[in-house]
Design a protein that fits this description.
Length: about 100
């Protein structure tokens, strides 16, 4: 079972994918299953932040600072997106509480 995603989790894109920028959006190909995914500009920004291992709380702070969104909503939407990406095998999640 995958770890639950919290604000202390560390997230990073998985190795079995390739992605590119498409006019501010992201196109992602999961190499394992051959499925393409698309992310809107905010999702693409989150994707770019996860190219290196990064804390969920840090990503939320960055998104809240760059977009006109309340921290609570940013946090909810971020975890929802991360859970979907994790379910599709596009990211890896580590428990950052021990760090």
């Amino acid at each position: 079972m995958s770890p639950a995603i919290s604000d202390r989790s560390i997230v990073v894109v998985a190795k079995d994918q390739v992605s590119c920028d498409l006019a501010g959006e992201a196109a992602i190909l999961n190499i394992k299953n051959g499925v393409y995914y698309g992310l809107d500009p905010v999702g693409a920004r989150i994707w770019s932040l996860m190219q290196e291992p990064r804390g969920v709380a840090e990503i939320q702070t960055t998104i809240t600072g760059e977009y006109d969104v309340e921290p609570e909503r940013a946090g909810r939407d971020l975890v929802e997106l991360l859970e979907k990406l994790l379910a599709e095998g596009l990211i890896e999640v580590k428990d950052g509480s021990a760090a």
